[in-house]
Amino acid sequence: MPHTNFDPTDLQFLAVNIKYSIFVYEVESNQFTYQNPAFEQAFKLTAQSVITPAALLDMVHPDDRQYVAEASRKLLQEKGSKEVEFRINLPEQEERWICLTPFLLNDAAAEHRIIGYVEDITASKQYNDYLKKFGNKKDSVLHILAHDLAGPLGMIHSISELLSEEVKSYGSQDLDHLISLIEKTSKHGVSLIKSLIDTEFLETTGVDLIKRRADIVVRLEEIMEQYQQSEREITKTFRFFCASKEIYIEFDDIKLLQAINNLISNSIKFTHEGGIITVSLEEHAQTVLIKVADNGIGIPEKYHDTLFDKFTNARRPGLDGEPSTGLGMSIIKTIVEWHQGRIWFESEVNVGTTFYIELPKE
Prior knowledge:
The chain is of the alpha+beta class and 362 residues long. The protein folds into two domains: 8-120, 2-Layer Sandwich (Beta-Lactamase); 125-360, Heat Shock Protein 90. 44% of the residues lie in helices and 22% in strands. The model has no long low-confidence stretch (mean pLDDT 78).
């Protein structure tokens, strides 16, 4: 129930003293009718400044202007309020990130009026990018370690099984015990590595999707750098291609890159030594297309229709005996669909496989 003693000057006091930049914009007259002191400070204005929307748009980073203009158009079409993150360039200052939260008032008394607030998110953006950068690298390193360790441990397990048969005739309980211990330890090691990666990936599906506007080129370069640095250990070549220096889209970079990491990991498992794994990124008018391609053993046609099923019958051990639960492809498909995207693949036995992920740019 509204407070009967509400005083409008309380809101005025709040607007003057709050850290957020607050504004009121009249669409028909194309002018700001209110800017609080924080707004003036954020955009380096004086109390006497007459700032126009065109002047503010000039401050927006050139690569973000179309995005901001499209967000404004959608707001005026009354499609609902939405946070808009973009970069601005202020005089004698480095590039800043701001978050704009606008609201369209469409009642009779305030037709075509936009109110909103702006927050400088540069520091939090840089901090989150730093954390995600190393989080994504961690996932890449896990997959690399899984391949580096699973192969040798699998070989040790196989050799210990052979030794166990060979030494039975010796009748030595101590020798049998030692070989059994080697066999169990190596088997447990392979299982532990696989379980660690599966747990990391499965936990992804239990966390809400948080999409933010970010540069997907940088994110892919970060994870590919890890694989390229491990080419000697993995005995495969990793390539990354993108014609654009930066491509900003809205996506959950933790979940999406975990999905791409898993596709790369599958390519590693099913590509012979000396093979080539290529990740490429293409920008189109309304979408971006991510490709993960290899020249490995390919996927038999009988598995094509069920590859993305949960616990699919298409699961098979890798070339070095790496185990598979059959859940990975199902989760990858789910993550892509959460982003309103689609995933498909082309594959030919003994030629290779290419996975395609198509995502909307907004």
